[in-house]
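Support request, please re-run this one:
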Amino acid sequence: MRILWFTDYQPPAVRRRLGAPDDPGPQAWVEALAERLAPASGVELAVATAAERSLPPFEEASIAYHVLGRRVYASRISRAAAGWRHRPPVPPLHEALALIRTLSPDLIHVHGTEGAWGLLAPLVAPIPCIISLQGILGAYVKAFFAGRSATEIAHLAADREFLVGRGYVHGYLLLRRSARREERIVRAARWFIGRTAWDRAVLAELNPGAVYFHCDEIMRQPFYEAEWERERRDGPSPRLYTTASGLMGKGTECLLRAVGILRREGLLTARLRVAGVPPGSGLEDVYRRVARRSGVADAVEWLGRLAAPRIVDEIRNADVFVYPSRVDNSPNSLVEAMLLGAPIVASRVGGVPSLLKDGEEGLLVPPGDAAALAAAIRRLLDRPELACVLGSRARLTARGRNDPVGIVARTLAIYEEVLARNGASPAATRL
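Re-run finished. Output below.
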């Protein structure tokens, strides 16, 4: 079975050849699946991605890599002009079609609808093309500025990045156009892989005739090897940990206000550690302003982007992992915290309820509700026995659901089912 993947994520093997630093982001699950799928009996796996320069094909660990060159702007002025036009970047689709003709794969798997690789689906027939649903851009557009005051939005617009076609305002306008492209991709394709009731519902609305397969993801290896233990906690100060990012809509401003509520209620020593927000970015500046207004500037530590082993340590040393996002499908950071067995408070948004059962494996609260978020955190801090029970149940669920062996077997079963062209078989669910 010859399988060809297309992904916007540049695997470590590719980044090494390009001389680029490691990218320890959450999309590492793509590489985790590839490493386990490639040795499978009868599978020839090729992975295609794009970079600013193409590379000769190479093979590493039984995986064939193809790096296609994408457009490079001739100058800063041309790059800035492109930023002001808000046109989503287009990967080298003509080169991709040529690669498909050369490799003649039995099946193509596109990872994600956020990029443009999904545009290949109607062009490659009769080769079946499966598309994995990851983020849902149409939903992210609606939540992009949620929780932001007019003053904060104006502050982001005044960022010096704005003048050169970058920054959050341009990012929003680009996201809107990318979401329209995503909708075209979803409407035109037939085969999809998802993980939550929410992404299945989104697909059903846009493409009722599509075939949906459920398949979970393999997380990064360090999260399978460690476990949260209350005994590890040192000191009397309650410690909260959250993973954010450079994206808007992660709800960090709501968590900052919740910490302010906790301190006003008497938890004067509560501390919050925030990973993922780019240091020195306009978004970090906005969050710091919220922290000052909430009276918690001295209680927050901004950690920047962390590699997986450091995140493991942060979660294991926290009393509660908090995920206050305003929109999400299947957040890997939440699943990773579940694998460790940490006590979790998260927003009841998108696909999160499919991952974490409220009251059984963690606590879910309405998005953007700082008072509810503070109350849920306080409940776990005041009832450590409940926190331990919920965390243990979450860990048991995640270790079964995100078991690498089972996910590889499920992926192969989906490939075989699609190749058989039988959408009504037991492996798939007709929407």
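Confidence is low (pLDDT under 50) at residues 422-431. Residues 2-218+404-430 form a domain with the Rossmann fold fold (CATH 3.40.50.2000).
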